[in-house]
Amino acid sequence: PTSGLEFVSSRHFPEDVQGDMLINNTIGFLGTKQHQMLEDGTGYSTKHRQDLLRSSDINYRPVDLEFAPDGSLYIADWHNVLIGHMQHNIRDPLRDHSHGRIYRVTYPGRPLVTPARVDGASVSILLENLKLPEYRTRYRTRRELREHAPSEVLPALEKWVAGLDKTSPQYEKLMLEALWVSWGQNKPDPRLIRQLMKSQDHRIRAAVVEVVRFAGKELPEKEAMLMEAAKDEHGRVRLEAIVSASWLSKEKGLPIITEAGKKPLDTWMQPAYNTAEAHINGRAVVRPKQEPADKVPVVAGIKPEIMAAGKAIYMRDGFCNTCHQADGKGLESSGFPPLKGSMWVTGSEDRLIKLVLKGLYGPIVVNGKKYPGQVPMTPYEGMLKDDEVASVLTYVRNAFGNRAPAVNPERVKEIRASIKGKKGFYTPEELLKVHPMEK
C-alpha cells in the first residue's frame, strides 16, 4: 500500500533527522511515516520516529514526495477512491479525474534553504553545487551536467577535484560525486574508482562497485575491480560484487561469486548469492518447498474438488488472498478484516453472495472491531461465474476454522438476477438493513 519514498536531506529540517526515511501509505494508515535508518550488517533496519503527516479524508492517497530547492517537502495526493488496477477497470466511472492536491511541509522557526542555481548555470557553478548538503540539489545538478558536452565538463571536473581539500571529512564523499559526474558523461574515471575502492567508508566502496557494474563497457579492468570487491570485509560491498558478477560470462563471473562466498553470507546476501550462482551456471534456483498456509480442509458433505476449486480462486493474485491473506486473518494494520471466525462469512449466504458480486465499501464491524473500509472490496460479478462464486464462498465458509453450509451455484444465479439492476458497491449498512447480523 505504499507509493513514494524520500530521505530527509535538507538544512531546513533539524540535524538529528537527516537521513531519515519518509514513506507514504495509501491503505489503512493514510499519510507519511518517518523512520530512522540504522546500519544492520549488509543491509539496514529502521526505527519508527513519528507519523509526519496523516489525513482523515478516506480518499487521501499520497503517491509521491520530494524535497524542493528551498528545502521544503512536497507531497502529492492522488485523491482517488479506487487505487487498484488488478481489481478495477481503468475506465471504472468511480475513478476520480478531477481532484488532487499537493501539500507543502515546512519546519516552524527554521529558515528555508536558498535555492541553488541549476538551470542555465555554468559548469563551474554546477560543480560547486555538489558540495551542498541537499541530496535533491546535487541530484538535479548532476542531471544538468549531463546536458553539457564531455569536452566542457571533464576538464573542469578534473580541475575541481584537484582543488578539493584532502583534509576535509567530506573529501571522499565529494570524490564520489565527481565519479558520478564522470559516469554521467559515459566516461567513469578509473583513477577515482581505484582510489575510492580503498575508502575507509564501506558505503562509498559499495557505491563505487555499483558504478563498475553499470559502466563496465568503459572499464577494461572491470573483472579485477569486482574481484577486489568480492574480497571486501563488508558484506554490502561483496553483495554488490555478487550481483555485478552475475551479469558476466561464466568464465569471468563465477570466480568472483565464488570468492565472495568464501566469507560469511548474511540474510541480505544469501538469496542474491544463490540466485547469481544458479544463473551463471545456467540452472534454476532451488527453493525449499513450503507447505501451504492453509491446506484444503476435508469437510463432511462437501466434495473435495469443490473445496480445491474454491481455494484455487481464493489464492489467485489480486483476489481474496491479497487482502485477507492465506490464513484468513486479514491485515489489521492495513484495514483488511479477517474472514476467520467472521459472521459476515459464516452467516447469511445471501448477504455474502451479494457483497461478493457487487463489492463492498464503507465502515464495517468484524469480530467486534471496526474497520474504516477505505478501500472498496472488489466486485466479482463480471469476473466469476456462478459455480466459481459458489466454490470460493464454500471454501471460505469452511476454511480457517470456519464451519457453515456450502453455497449452491443455483442460489448464486438467483441472487445475481435479483440484484442485476443495482449500481455501485454495497455498503455494510445497506446489507445489514436487509440481512441483519446473526447473534
Describe this structure in words.
The chain has 439 residues and is of the alpha+beta class. It has helices spanning 123-129, 135-145, 150-162, 171-184, 190-196, 202-214, 222-230, 235-245, 250-260, 270-280, 304-314, 320-324, 343-346, 349-358, 386-396, 409-418, 428-434; strands at residues 5-7, 21-25, 31-40, 43-54, 62-67, 73-77, 101-105, 364-366, 369-371. The model has no long low-confidence stretch (mean pLDDT 93). It has a four-stranded antiparallel sheet with strand order 1-2-3-4, with no helix packed on it. A three-stranded antiparallel sheet has the order 5-6-7, with no helix packed on it. It has a two-stranded antiparallel sheet with strand order 8-9. 33% of the residues are buried. A hairpin with a 5-residue loop joins strand 2 (21-25) and strand 3.
Labels describing this entry:
38% helix, 3-stranded antiparallel sheet, 9 strands, globular, alpha+beta, 4-stranded antiparallel sheet
Give a brief rundown of this model.
With 439 residues, this protein is an alpha+beta fold. The protein has helices at residues 123-129, 135-145, 150-162, 171-184, 190-196, 202-214, 222-230, 235-245, 250-260, 270-280, 304-314, 320-324, 343-346, 349-358, 386-396, 409-418, 428-434, and strands at residues 5-7, 21-25, 31-40, 43-54, 62-67, 73-77, 101-105, 364-366, 369-371.
Our estimate of the beta-strand percent is 5-15%
Radius of gyration, in Å, reads 28 Å
Order of helices and strands: EEEEEEEHHHHHHHHHHHHHHEEHHH
**Structural class designation:** alpha+beta
Percent range of helical residues: 25-40%
DSSP strand tally:
9
Instruction: Please tally the helical runs, counting DSSP H or I stretches of 4 or more residues.
Output: 17
Indicate the mean pLDDT. Answer: 93
Low-pLDDT sequence parts = none
How are the strands ordered across the major sheet?
Answer: 1-2-3-4
Largest sheet: 4 strands, antiparallel
N-to-C CA distance? 34 Å
**What coarse outline follows from CA principal-axis ratios?**
globular
